[in-house]
Amino acid sequence: LTLLVAVTFPFFADLLGFFGGLAFAPNSFFVSLEVT
């Protein structure tokens, strides 16, 4: 079980970071547009 978690956790963290960046990038882009 520990090995399974150790293998899948970085994969899900990378996936979460990818989708999180996909979701937050347009927001930060529009915010930077309004600020300038």
TrEMBL record:
Transmembrane parts of this sequence: 12-33
Keyword Transmembrane helix: yes
Keywords: Membrane, Transmembrane, Transmembrane helix
Top-level taxon: Eukaryota
Official protein name in the record: Amino acid transporter transmembrane domain-containing protein
Source species of the chain: Nymphaea colorata (pocket water lily)
Taxon lineage: Eukaryota, Viridiplantae, Streptophyta, Embryophyta, Tracheophyta
